[in-house]
């Protein structure tokens, strides 16, 4: 009998008894049904009252007709222009079980308009009906179809073309989406045809061999905060076992780098890697370890012995902790390897919960936390955009 909520590690995904599987399946499908109902209501509301964050284009490809992608042009961009744009592909989160590309509309619109990028939100299927590696292969198929159109079709009207500068392309994702983005970067077809120059995993899932019960022990808890930030239990802890069960087939190697990028070789990832963690998040520790390994830093123990960040709240609300040499919160490592410039960054968002930049204000249950999260989201996006432009894509 397997208990995914217990601390420890696994090498392969265990087999569940019939009654365990029945229980996990009932809970997973119930959560999925509830979230999908809320999503339908939100989509109807948006259709009726179009907000300022809607995409400029929604596009599908014959290879995945049920998986539309959402495209955001920067403010003021002339669609019939021949000007190519730096491009950021995005992958939404949701524990490999729920979530929708429209979840990231606000972030994508803001990033496109503020930093002058073309932003393309990708799409993928999820568990329990579509476990690993279905979602990863969905991303692969959509990207290859997109690039085939980009490079081969001259008959596409100017207003339908995607002005991607193929020398300035990066991919990012949130949580489960960050995991899938890191996996996509390792696929030979993507390395050959898309050639991402950077990946930005934000509060990523990167090591599925860690049991969910162990993850919750590897972060600080700051119970002096009001609302969600002061919760003595982790935001993801209760649902994590069901997310894991939904996505991972029985017998799956949990250290497969496509599933657990913590085990990916450096040469299999883009030359630029910028890991962003949230301090009050059970996933923060594994993202920290990944960044340290890729950046040549001392890798913290694979246990709760050391936790990222600090025990006390940050001295200043709404601010990132950078520029003071405190490598718990930020460091950078740039080097040249066999004539190739490589760059790794680690940025820890202080006093931030998982999904801090995406969850509804009501979930924070604290107006101060809402403002704090918004300020830090805008600040980290600026840091990432500047890194891409001034480091990764600098001539």
TrEMBL record:
Pfam family, one: Abhydrolase_3
MF terms (GO), sorted A to Z: hydrolase activity
Hydrolase listed as a keyword: yes
The keyword Hydrolase is assigned to this record: yes
Keywords assigned: Hydrolase
Domain Alpha/beta hydrolase fold-3: 89-300
Top-level division of the source organism's lineage: Eukaryota
Protein name stated in the entry: Alpha/Beta hydrolase protein
Lineage, uppermost ranks: Eukaryota, Fungi, Dikarya, Ascomycota, Pezizomycotina
């Amino acid at each position: 009998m397997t208990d995914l909520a217990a601390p420890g590690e696994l090498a392969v995904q265990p087999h569940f008894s019939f009654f365990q599987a029945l229980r996990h399946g009932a809970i997973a499908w119930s959560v999925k049904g509830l979230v999908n109902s809320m999503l339908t209501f939100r989509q109807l509301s948006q259709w009726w009252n179009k907000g300022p964050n809607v995409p400029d284009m929604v596009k599908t490809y014959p290879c995945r007709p049920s998986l539309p992608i959402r495209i955001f042009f920067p403010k003021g961009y002339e669609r019939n222009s021949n000007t190519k744009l730096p491009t950021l592909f995005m992958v939404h989160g949701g524990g490999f079980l729920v979530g929708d590309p429209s979840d990231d509309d606000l972030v994508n619109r803001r990033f496109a308009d503020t930093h002058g990028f073309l932003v393309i939100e990708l799409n993928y299927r999820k568990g329990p009906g579509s476990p690993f590696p279905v979602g990863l292969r969905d991303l692969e198929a959509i990207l290859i179809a997109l690039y085939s159109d980009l490079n081969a079709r001259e008959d596409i009207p100017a207003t339908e073309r995607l002005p991607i500068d193929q020398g300035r392309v990066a991919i990012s994702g949130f949580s489960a989406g960050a995991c899938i983005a890191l996996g996509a970067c390792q696929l030979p077809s993507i390395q050959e045809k898309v050639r991402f120059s950077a990946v930005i995993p934000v509060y990523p899932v990167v090591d599925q061999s860690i049991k969910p019960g162990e993850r919750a022990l590897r972060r600080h808890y700051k119970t002096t905060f009001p609302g969600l930030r002061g919760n003595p239990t982790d935001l993801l802890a209760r649902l994590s076992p069901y997310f894991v069960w939904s996505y991972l087939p029985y017998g799956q190697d949990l250290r497969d780098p496509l599933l657990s990028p913590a085990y990916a070789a450096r040469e299999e990832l883009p030359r630029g890697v910028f890991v962003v963690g949230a301090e009050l998040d059970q996933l923060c520790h594994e993202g920290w370890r990944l960044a340290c390994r890729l950046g040549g830093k001392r890798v913290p123990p694979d246990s709760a012995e050391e936790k990222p960040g600090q025990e006390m709240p940050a001295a200043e609300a709404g601010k990132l902790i950078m520029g003071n040499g405190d490598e718990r919160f930020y460091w950078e490592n740039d080097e040249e390897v066999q004539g190739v410039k490589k760059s790794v960054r680690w940025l820890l968002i202080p006093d931030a919960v998982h999904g801090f930049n995406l969850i509804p204000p009501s979930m924070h249950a604290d107006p101060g936390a809402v403002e704090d999260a918004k300020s830090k989201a805008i600040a980290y996006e600026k840091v990432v955009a500047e890194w891409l432009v001034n480091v990764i894509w600098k001539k």
